[in-house]
Design goal:
The complex is a heterodimer.
Chain A (H helix, E strand, L loop, with lengths): L1 E3 L7 E2 L4 E6 L3 E8 L2 E8 L8 E6 L10 E4 L5 E7 L5 E5 L3 E3 L4 E9 L1 E6 L6 E6 L4 E5 L6 E8 L14 E10 L5 E3 L2 E3 L6 E3 L4 E3 L1 E6 L7 E5 L10 E4 L10 H12 L2
Parallel strand pairs in A: 9-15, 16-20, 16-21
Antiparallel strand pairs in A: 1-6, 2-8, 3-4, 3-6, 4-5, 5-7, 8-12, 9-18, 10-17, 11-16, 12-13, 14-15, 19-20, 19-23, 21-22
Chain B lengths: L1 H11 L2 H32 L5 H26 L4 H18 L1 H16 L7 E4 L2 E8 L3 E6 L4 E5 H6 L2 E3 L5 E11 L4 H14 L10 E7 L3 E11 L3 H18 L23
Antiparallel strand pairs in B: 1-2, 1-5, 2-3, 3-4, 6-8, 7-8
Helix pairs in contact in B: 2-3, 7-8
Classes of the chains: A mainly beta, B alpha+beta.
Amino acid sequence: MQKSGIAVWETLEIPQRRCARWLFPRRSIWVERIETEWHVLSHAQEIAQRDSSLMLVGRSLKPDSSQWRHYLHRDSGSVQPSPVLPDRPVVIRPDRALTLLPGQSTVFFLEIPVWFRLSTTGARPARIFEEPLAVLTRTWFGDPVTGELCWGLATRLHHSLDSVVASADRAVCPLMIENDSETDLEFQKICIHVENLSVFRGPGHLWTNSLHAVFRGPDQVTQIEIVHTPPGFEERLVPVSEAREPSAGWNIRRTFGVLKYFTDF
Amino acid sequence: MFFGQIATWIQKLSPDVVTKGLRVAVTLVLGLLLVRLLAVVTQRYVMKKSTLQRRMVVRKIIGYSGFVLVAMAVLAELGVKLTALLGAAGIVGIAVGFASQTSVSNIISGLFLISEKPFSIGDVIRIGTTTGIIQSIDLLSIKIRTFDNLFVRIPNEKILSSEVTNITRFPIRRMDIVLQVDYGQDLQRVHETLAAIAHDNPWSLDEPEPVIIFNDFKESGVEVLFGLWFSKSDFVELKNSIMKEIAQRFAAGRIRFAHPRRRMVPPVVREGVAP
């Protein structure tokens, strides 16, 4: 049995004496069921893979390592791998300086690396473990006293979905920005509170909720709205993981924070 | 048998004494219960969002003042004249006051510390040569647990008059490592190597950017300040990993650390002249 691309996130039955091996571009994960225990091994790939794949292999092929972790859970049978977003906000540093002129609006597609979460299925699903699939840098957003610890990510701001390469270890976050002010809006860093976003699986890509931001000037409140319905850039999207901290809607404190992130003042 | 003896003894007492005894017991029990209830209600509902040390101080104030009031009520029930007692207490108070100047000074310093809030329970502070985690902040002293698990009590008066460094007050810190590289090293390469070490270290923050400053020309080499920002909880991980990385990368890049050197110049010996 072998799956590749987005299909690696499908529910999987791991028979006794077989090992599931997920290969992602920068990480490989091995999972085995022995009696009432789940045995898990996760390690970084020395040579980056181009694509992601899932394969059931015999036990003889499993790596001999002292890093195997053991999780006790009575329910046997199938497991559900899920892509979840990082546990902290992600500060996106675009690969080039970009200025949105007054009165203009645009849509960016941001690629955010996902984490691998493995859960049991059944009446009472339990989370077995969670691992980042890519190493992000640690960064600080804001001033040294009131800022927050984030993950840093240098990436490209895609204007079109055509330039986004389909990948099982990255979710596409559509960000629509309107510059409703008289001043230029320069992008140097964008802080995305990914802990408020859900992940959806489509035929070609993983997606997060869309974000809608209206910039009304450096001294005005910039509002970022999370669109709770699946993004409409691809058909047949199914929700695969919920937000870590579901956002209830507008939040004045966070909105003011977002203003600072956007304007970098 | 025992209870029977008590009952017989009570029956022998006059009704006035029994009534007074009961009133004293009720005042004592109800008074102490009321004080306890007041402390609990204040802690749980009124001061729910206050800091730990503020709650602790308020609990102690309620406890001590409540105990004094209950004691006064009991004494009043027993027929003790409080005015005479208070007069005597005043004289005793003056004597005790002279004898306990240090304690009073500590209490006043404690109140200043509580209002100023330079640190709170759980913070890591450094006072003089002592560094540790604050366990409690009391009216007379603060208690610290050092990293080698020693219990240290520091009087509040001393804290108020000393320089106190709160190491964990802010969420991020900078770790400064001072290096000396040998003269003759390519300083641009040193800069690039240090920048790469900071970039590759998982515990070092990339923003604020690491600081690399060629500080001074020292006796044996060029002094370099290498400052890395980190989240306050990652101190040990960063310290251990970065020291190893510096040693490895410098060795791999053939960058030499400066070592103290002395050049011995032998005196010139001329023919027929004693050195």
